[in-house]
């Protein structure tokens, strides 16, 4: 059993590096995603329980192994507008606009979890390896969209980003009473980052460089409480600490062939989750509310240009997330689920330009899913997800040379950059009691 778990961990380590699905995943696995990600007080499966509240794994008394794989599709669009000037540098009153579509394709999203406990014991243990975060875009170079024009013509050229965060957790839950449980979960993280161009590096006469993929190791933890009453009412609270990472050491190559290096630190934000659940007969209800603390997270809290015209950080504000889900179990061996997730936008209009490599912001997400219980020991799950940014995130194009005339970031008068996207995902999962 242990050998099987470590083999699956090795598989996930090789495939999760291609996962791109927005910075914070709304849920993990087919069951949890189909409930909108709500699981802080409603542990319907071990993946959602381990991800959102380790105290809830106390409800599982068997040894359970769960594997999920999702195929994620996204379709971001990047648009920009700049004013046109005559030969003497005066505005003509005309504007040059264009739109570039992302051509990234499909990204796999795996998740693996395991829980073991005994009915007569107050202790339950768990282990997981999840891809919990990521962003990525591929906007080709274009002469019809100002922002994607070659750097020699004043644009950024091809804009491409790859970021992923893989988290390994070891959980322990203890039943304080028949109704109250406490859980703790230390975590170790692996993150990888690649940027084209790299705005965190100092530009030269050749423009901004591109980077090779760099990696960083991080650590953090999670604690939680869970109340499970005999009447079916449930409540939970959990706190994920900031995941503290070392620096990404980025090896840069400029368009003229010169090379250089720079370091960039990007942590994962702390998340406070509150949950309510209710189970009665054929119905399971779940509602979660989360606060994500970007404003105190390295890489996201800083914003603006450095003295050498590199970008300090993304400049995100804190966000609120609401997740809700319903499961109906009235059909024998065939539970059906629906879920909804709302997320506020962390990007203000004045810093939209700094966030072109990380456009994966989803405001509204809708999910449907079901399971089929082949036996008492084996269950298969399925999921469909659709998400929308709920409109464009937009703001002016910024230039550090304009910062003195147009503080604080040097907005180019009459310019605009905007991006929006939709996402969809098909997922399947399998749960085995060993």
From TrEMBL:
<protein>
    <submittedName>
        <fullName>Hydrocarbon degradation protein</fullName>
    </submittedName>
</protein>
<keyword id="KW-0472">Membrane</keyword>
<feature type="signal peptide">
    <location>
        <begin position="1"/>
        <end position="21"/>
    </location>
</feature>
<keyword id="KW-0998">Cell outer membrane</keyword>
<dbReference type="GO" id="GO:0015483">
    <property type="term" value="F:long-chain fatty acid transporting porin activity"/>
</dbReference>
<dbReference type="GO" id="GO:0009279">
    <property type="term" value="C:cell outer membrane"/>
</dbReference>
<dbReference type="Pfam" id="PF03349">
    <property type="entry name" value="Toluene_X"/>
</dbReference>
<keyword id="KW-0732">Signal</keyword>
<comment type="similarity">
    <text>Belongs to the OmpP1/FadL family.</text>
</comment>
<keyword id="KW-0812">Transmembrane</keyword>
<keyword id="KW-1134">Transmembrane beta strand</keyword>
<dbReference type="InterPro" id="IPR005017">
    <property type="entry name" value="OMPP1/FadL/TodX"/>
</dbReference>
